[in-house]
Specification:
seven-stranded mixed β-sheet; homotetramer; about 40% helix; alpha/beta; about 350 residues; 14 helices; six-stranded parallel β-sheet
């Protein structure tokens, strides 16, 4: 295979732009050939051409039908992910699809199957696995420094809630937000989740509660390897994006604290004050987005397994669906119960 | 009332000795008058006399019948707490009783009622409320710095497990160990626990599992004020006594890290290494034991409410019993279900 | 003036490459037009063309004589800086010159005068002023949070010493290494250095001592505004690049700690271990190199003063020469004594 | 020798009281027999008797002439230290003398000689050597973790300046305040100071300057073993007592940060804020005062060398005198120059 991967991007919104610019700047082994967005505007067109994309259009077929393009990035709205994944697979393209593949299990399975049938790579955009901090914890575990994992503890809090209306379309806090943490939990435990129990409340914005969702949630996890886990989510941490992971085991524990914009501490009569965490995911996971794209390109070029597979995305969705069910039914829910 | 409180101690084991020495050294407003232990040996006798105790015997009545003694500290084995509390109350003594009052609700209630009827103070030995770190968090909350409490997160891990046989008599991890954390959770939330859900496993020592207990546990909490909580316990953290609390709310979050024996960091080719946490509760809560005794003495001398009441002890027991039940029945359990 | 600055780079060594790639990737308002290196090899040529440079040659005149090029970056060896700066000024190019301009005062003055006469910008490459940590301290000072600066304290230690032979050509530790810290001290104090006193020794490598230099040095500073300062340098910190600054004043103090590759702490029986600092200047000052280049481009495009002027470079050189003299003569040396 | 040391204290001011109470509470191997203060008032008398002192008077001879007393603590004003040390030595008492022994070399030598001639122990009250943090650094050095010591860096800043009038009697900042740091520097370097250079200014209070002293000072040190050192002092750190030490060597570096009253960090929209350092020496060195007294008692009872000798006190005074001279004469001063 060529030593450079030609890529087309579907969706020129916030996340699509990040990937496009990362490919143009930081991934020497990939080149951006096309940008497609069904609502492409003049600004996006200018931007895409400025990055050197030869194909700039509103029609995905311009990508799919172009034999020079080997990989596609699906960065459009969630409801289009499954169909585009299937179409891309049928076109023989390797696929990087933003999370989640879909909000429903059958469509996720259909997308996975399409990729498998076509023999193309399918990587899902769980970027946090590529975070320098969380990756370091995993390395400690793999190196045996933690011993057997016994407890995984994740705090994941956003700086500001989305509009309440968003809850309706997003699938709710577990599918929209905590799905990242389910993926992190599985990654750190090195094992599948077997059961979840969820509690939650609308403590930040009653409108979120009226929309049928919660904005504050705690979920306990059981893993197949016997480990236990807990995730807490809040839609609003006034001090910024709070992203911490701890893995505790028989030989030690590893803890990742937040990243800060600088290390300065100001000491005065009021105390010793340091910076708040980096504001939100664009700042915090800036390098993780690059690393995940590098990993995708490398998996394709060297024909290696992708680091986050469609099956991973499916397992994460199961956990999110089980948590949603647990919250509603006020009881623990086994993953098998949503898997079937 | 006199400006000094005359105290007799029942039980000259580890915790009794700590309180006796603290009174002798650090509590100018109290004086140690008597030490009673049903198995008093020569070494204990010498020690007690060295501290200036005039009454040194094996018979609690030597304390109860002495009109010069105003307060008693019940530091004997748990199975004697309730009966001694009742006897002390009937003798008109103010009572400081180590936790737990008893493993059964009726006996706890009987002890509380006896104290109430006699009009004496009854304080329970939940020493962690007096810890400098956890107290500071509570002060922030009371000062409005946290806003409305939304999440309480507690990690509480021992450096080494007790003998498996201990599980049988201790009542298990929730009653023996996590009861401290239930008390801390209620203290920090400023609200009662209404429901718990527990998961756990014997990951450290299979013998603990065979004895019907777990050594690793995660419990989620719902509070009456709407806040959520989570506690994790492990019987064995190889790096020492891990005691951390975090309170997250609408205006901010406060986090207490472990205490260390010194602040030194060694930087070398292997990294930057600091000390492990203080080894265990004797080291970590050294000053908290003094502070709780001061609070008891002050409550009696100034006729103020005790900071940790018999009712607190009862609520903590409810939470522990509910967690025990939850673990066994694999479902969330409302506190009301064990209260009745 | 155009809204994009056309740049030519003289010198395609390590630092030249960094600037070239930063311009190509991160500075949208600048474009890399040419790369010249007197020893240009095939690899460099390929690299330069890959970045889009139209002019790739061994002759600086290809840059100087090209009217389309507005700014030049002088990244060649130190002994060529002054002559190239003068030639660039005479060609009417704005100049970014790596530090130091020269090791001798007259040539530095000649370069500064040439730029002044030609009316072009001259910025010197003291990249640390653009570091996120040190800049934050300065912001605190400018915001009044520090009050009047009383003490500036800088630790600056390299991970590994240069070859002893380097000492001969570099001018020694004060001119080669501590000059950065003199610049930082002036930046943080907001005042000129008036006197220095230096002590030093060859504690790491006797060969450095035999070459007439020291590898460990401490210099105290007096500033015109009354503040005091101290800088320590070591050529070899086994734990990596140690770059810390502290500013202490009448209203508070600000302290910058090292940057780490991640925030993870591993707790085990041996203690709690975090990462070493980022290895060396390429890692630590990665973003500072971009920020200084942005500042240069902005100064030219918007006709604003450069943030680090030729006069700054001259003052830093005075301090380094005075420290060299102080070490040799074992007495404090006033800056005026080397200025005249 | 007996397994308990009978002690008399001369001087019932602040520091005398601390030692008296520590002996009464924490040093089981010592007993407080007498308290003498030339200005003894009723409150002090009550306090001394409350601690069990049998001899409470205004006449040191009541201590010196009492054959039951083996050790004396000299805690009176500095101008009486030497004469009392000599009198105590002649009376055959072991001596713990607060720092400094005297402000003049001949009197210090006379006191040391008197103790040597009498064959009694003489320990000087440089309490910081017993601080848990600084001791830990020294342990790392002795264990070889630092390798050869190359740089010793000490920051030592008080929370509030003394009255300007104090400067006249105290001997100035180097003798009154930095003498502690000279002792720490020698302790950490494991070597004698051979030369100092001092700069300083009255930046906090002009009245201190008018009294002929400085309130902000920086002193560089050369040690006999080749290491370099630097100490900074300020009479006023608005954030409290700043006491930090760093030892840097060929194999690593150890750094002690300040002690804090608790570990809590408050995160909110303004940043992440922790506590200021413990306020002043009574809080910070509380345990160090106990440890130094334990060491004195142990040295006497077990006939071991004292950990801080009269010769140490003399060397520290030499450094302080040399720094005073350096500041005045604006040049480096060798210790030998003040030693002769």
């Amino acid at each position: 295979m060529a030593d450079s991967l030609s890529i087309g991007i579907l969706g020129a919104g916030r996340i699509g732009k990040i990937h496009a610019e990362n490919i143009a700047r930081f991934i020497p082994q990939a080149s951006l050939k096309g940008v497609v967005d069904s609502n492409l505007n003049a600004e996006q067109e200018r931007w895409a051409k400025g990055l050197g994309a030869g194909i700039v259009s509103r029609d995905p077929r311009d990508i799919f039908d172009n034999p020079a393009i080997q990989g596609v990035l699906i960065c459009s709205s969630t409801d289009t992910h499954a169909a585009l994944t299937i179409a891309a697979a049928e076109a023989g393209k390797h696929i990087f699809c933003e999370k989640p593949i879909d909000l429903t299990v059958p469509r996720v399975k259909a997308a996975i199957n399409a990729a498998a049938k076509a023999g193309v790579k399918l990587q899902i955009g769980f970027n946090r696995r590529f975070d320098h901090n969380f990756r370091r914890i995993r390395e400690y575990t793999l190196a045996g420094e933690i011993g057997e994992v016994q407890i995984v503890r994740i705090s994941s809090r956003d700086p500001a809630p989305p509009a309440p209306a968003y809850a309706a379309v997003s699938g709710g806090i577990f599918i929209d937000m905590m799905i990242h943490d389910f993926d992190m939990a599985r990654f750190q435990a090195g094992s599948e989740i077997t059961e979840v129990y969820a509690i939650g409340a609308a403590l930040i914005d009653p409108a979120i509660g009226r929309a049928g969702d919660v904005d504050t949630a705690l979920v306990t996890l059981k893993f197949a390897n016997g480990a236990l886990g807990v995730i807490d989510n809040s839609r609003k941490a006034v001090y910024g994006y709070d992203q911490r992971v701890e893995v505790f085991g028989s030989r030690g524990a590893a803890q990742a604290e937040n990243d800060l914009p600088n290390t300065v501490k100001l000491s005065n009569a009021g105390g010793v004050t340091g910076e708040k965490p980096l504001y939100f995911f664009l700042e915090r996971y800036k390098n993780a987005f690059i690393a995940e794209m590098n990993a995708f390109v490398e998996a394709v070029l060297q024909d290696k397994p992708v680091p986050v597979s469609g099956e991973d995305g499916l397992e994460d969705l199961y956990a999110a669906l089980a948590a949603t069910k647990s919250l509603k039914e006020k009881r623990p829910v086994r993953i098998d119960a949503v898997r079937d």
